[in-house]
């Protein structure tokens, strides 16, 4: 049974508005978690940026091109930045999704 069928079944049991409201709340919670995780990741990146005197974005480019050494601290920094990028991507995918846009429009 696919997700659409399940959502339709829940909508028939509990009402479309209630189900859509619940899904929107879940998406909003995930967005909040992403934002919190991004803030925490930014804080964790600052000491590395200060120590190596460059922004994480610049270091990432250099790392991807093999221009940074494989120092354990640089690898830790790049691992943290990779996680930051993954969370940022998740946040954008949610915010840009058609499904989330539909939930926003139906909530009004």
Instruction: Quickly count the helices.
Output: 5
Mean of residue pLDDT values: 88
Given the C-alpha coordinates, what overall shape results?
elongated
Task: Point out poorly predicted stretches.
Answer: none
List SSEs in N-to-C order. Answer: HHHHH
Describe the structure.
- By secondary structure, this protein is mostly helical.
- Helix content is 86%, strand content 0%.
- It has helices spanning 3-14, 16-52, 56-64, 72-96, 98-107.
- The longest helix has 37 residues, at 16-52.
- The chain starts with a helix and ends with a helix.
- The relative contact order is 0.13.
- The model has no long low-confidence stretch (mean pLDDT 88).
Describe the structure concisely for a colleague.
The protein is mostly helical. 86% of the residues lie in helices and 0% in strands.
Which key terms come to mind for this protein?
single chain; about 110 residues; about 0% strand
């Amino acid at each position: 049974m696919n997700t659409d069928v399940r959502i339709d079944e829940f909508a028939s049991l509990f009402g479309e508005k209630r189900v859509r409201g619940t899904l929107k709340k879940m998406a909003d919670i995930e967005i909040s978690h992403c934002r919190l995780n991004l803030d925490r990741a930014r804080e964790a990146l600052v000491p590395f940026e200060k120590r190596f005197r460059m922004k994480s974005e610049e270091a990432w480019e250099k790392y991807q091109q093999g221009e940074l050494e494989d120092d354990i601290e640089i690898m830790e920094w790049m691992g943290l930045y990779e996680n930051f990028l993954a969370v940022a991507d998740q946040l954008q995918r949610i915010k840009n999704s058609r499904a989330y846009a539909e939930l926003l429009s139906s909530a009004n």
